[in-house]
Amino acid sequence: MEYEAVIGLEVHAQLKTESKIFCGCSTRFGESPNRNTCPVCTGMPGVLPVLNRRVVDFAIKAALATNCTIQRRNVFARKNYYYPDLPKGYQISQYELPIATGGYVEIVVGGERKRIGITRIHMEEDAGKLVHEGEFEKAHHSLVDFNRAAVPLLEIVSEPDIRSPEEGGAYLRMLRDILVYLDICDGNMEEGSFRCDANVSVRPKGAKEFGTKTELKNMNSFRNVERALEYEIQRQIQVLREGGTVVQETRLFDANTGRTVSMRTKEEAHDYRYFPDPDLVPLEIDDEWVERVRKTLPELPLEKIDRFQKEYSLPLYDCQILCSSKNLADFFEEAVKLHPNPKGISNWIMAEVLRELNREKVDISETKLKPAHVASIVKLIDEGTISGKIGKSVFEEVYRTGESPEKIVEERGLVQVSDEAALEEIARKVLENHPKEVESYKKGKTGVIGFFVGQVMKETKGKANPKLVNEILRRLLSS
């Protein structure tokens, strides 16, 4: 029997507000433990929460960008459960009346587009953080840091429309890109500002009923989400094929082994005893508020991908890479304005620029590199002033120092040699010094031409015009 996966994802996205959702404490990440706290966010008796209007603006933005219906009447609810890092003993969230419902995110997988439905988006506060490390771990103690308590969150719940780990990864990346484009979340999974839980089940292909689902937690990267989904799908299929029964439970993903392990069984849903928070009045959102936020929406990732394909005649793959970051997309467009060779600049960004960004794990805005630098290097290569090989060495120095490519080329004497007579003389010597290779070429092994080009480049210290060298060598060899 063939099986198919049914996957739904729940994302918690921390919002980029300067203060928390119900008090004025800072949301800054990395402060010393319990520095960003006050009686309100630590749940002291007699305090009252006050809603941060900026959180609502950001939630409306996310709802509009994901094609949701915005609920005009919102109610905050208390979600009651005990955990050491939840200071009030309940979490202020939304339940029956969330801010948005019934939207979708469009993804591209294998060149095909698919819509992943969104069930709901709601606003809530984050919990604190338990710290288990150092001497306290040996003594079986944990410490609580309440800095994160009451940092504003959006919980975004998808429909069970995802059918593969690849689709799950594409959905998460697109959702993250949307939130980052909106400038409402930094999307940093390692710091926990973009977190994901997955609900996974399998069923026979063609069946309408869902199978028993498991909940997956502890996935801190897109790649780990895909790995966890892949393992869990295969585990459930194996259980069913062996005549077993999938147990409803919560499982943790172990990135070291690539396996999911049981955390706790979940025979029935928790009774969180939701009820409207008596300290917060219902929130009314009128049309004027929604339209004011709508006017601030930027061009979104998929819209930008479509425009890049049409305007710059780039392949879908290039557009997806360039538009995966708004800063990278803006960088590309600025460079193309300065030197209108979209494909050449795209190639340079995807190869040289992204290699450095990935190595240093930084955004392009955090480097000394400017659009004019890349535009200049591509222009120098297109005009034959320098070779592609020289361009790479120039780029390394530009990236490190921020100097202009033209200045580096001039100071280091890197102008490409395009003197045909001089290059022909060097080419003749190379052929004379390698008679066996010349004979191989004449017997049909034309690939040896690359060897000859390499020798000429070596003689000229990489300055020879490779296209011209190729033409000269073929002419000499054919004669």
Features of the shown structure:
479 residues; alpha+beta; 16 strands; 9-stranded mixed sheet; Arc Repressor Mutant, subunit A; elongated; 3-stranded antiparallel sheet; 16 helices
Describe this structure as you would to a colleague:
By secondary structure, the protein is an alpha+beta fold. It has 3 domains: 8-200 and 279-291, no CATH class; 301-411, no CATH class; 420-478, Orthogonal Bundle (Arc Repressor Mutant, subunit A), CATH 1.10.10.410. It has helices at residues 53-65, 135-138, 165-181, 222-241, 287-294, 301-312, 316-322, 326-338, 342-360, 371-382, 388-401, 405-411, 420-433, 435-442, 449-459, 466-478; strands at residues 3-14, 69-70, 73-74, 76-80, 90-94, 100-109, 112-125, 129-131, 143-145, 152-158, 194-204, 214-219, 249-254, 259-265, 275-276, 283-284. Strand 6 (100-109) and strand 7 (112-125) form a beta hairpin. Helix 1 (53-65) packs across helix 5, helix 3 runs antiparallel to helix 4 (222-241) and helix 13 (420-433) crosses helix 15 (449-459). The protein is elongated and about 90 Å long. The termini are far apart.
End-to-end gap: 66 Å
Per DSSP, the total helix count is: 16
Helix content: 40-55%
- By helix and strand content, what is the structural category? alpha+beta
Short recap of the structure:
By secondary structure, this protein is α+β, with helices and mostly antiparallel strands. The chain has helices spanning 53-65, 135-138, 165-181, 222-241, 287-294, 301-312, 316-322, 326-338, 342-360, 371-382, 388-401, 405-411, 420-433, 435-442, 449-459, 466-478, and strands spanning 3-14, 69-70, 73-74, 76-80, 90-94, 100-109, 112-125, 129-131, 143-145, 152-158, 194-204, 214-219, 249-254, 259-265, 275-276, 283-284.
